Amino acid sequence: MYKSPQEFSVLGLPVHLMTNYPNWLLECLQQGRGTHVVTLNAEMTMQAERNRSLAEVIQNADLVIPDGAGVVLYLHYLLRQEVKRCPGIELAEKLLQELGEQKTATNIFFYGGVSGVAATAAEFWQQKIPNLGIAGTHSGYHSPEEEKILQQTLTQLQPQVIFVGLGVPRQELWIAKNRHLCDQAIWIGVGGSFDIWAGVKTRAPRWLANNNLEWLYRLYQEPWRWRRMLALPQFALKAFVYRFSARDINSAEC
Known about the structure:
The chain is 52% helix and 16% strand. By secondary structure, it is of the alpha/beta class. The strands form two sheets. The protein has a six-stranded parallel sheet with strand order 4-3-8-7-5-6, sandwiched between helices. Strand 1 and strand 2 form a beta hairpin.
């Protein structure tokens, strides 16, 4: 039976908490209920403050999961919620594994990354789960003409699960603009997951991830991201200011 996830606010953006995200998405899939999944972290939250279009997309998403350590710590320490981090790549992997066990084939589409990466990522999963239904793949870098062909392809194929790896905010805005093409599909922005599945990059060691330091490993792999990492202390500062300001307002009202 369909049950709406519990919703909390992180700096004015929704985050949905539940015990089993893959099962909920499988239920959406079975009922043909189109779903846009956003994987929220501190960097995306700060981008949304400057990008109204991104903020609106997150507000309207059907499922916003706590992807980043900053979001999890906010929920834990400021909202007193027992919550585990749910990285988007792990949600996608669990969903793929669950789909591989289904008797009815589910068509999946991989879109994003540089030339060949989406295809290699799809091949990786096809070898890992032979009965997985791969409907198609497409690079994330192309001309406007190729974009129209991609849209036509999605309309014709009607894949039921679409992974979009274009990075933030491009993937979120693209999904919001195009999800009507496959209105019963599950759309998930997966960032750089294709690179990892294709073997181009590696994830942080488990001990770093368990200590909320996966961002440090990402910075090591991609030093050019240092400017974007400035969002982390900005998020921490705004989180405390936002939370305690709200507490003061509530106290005054009482």
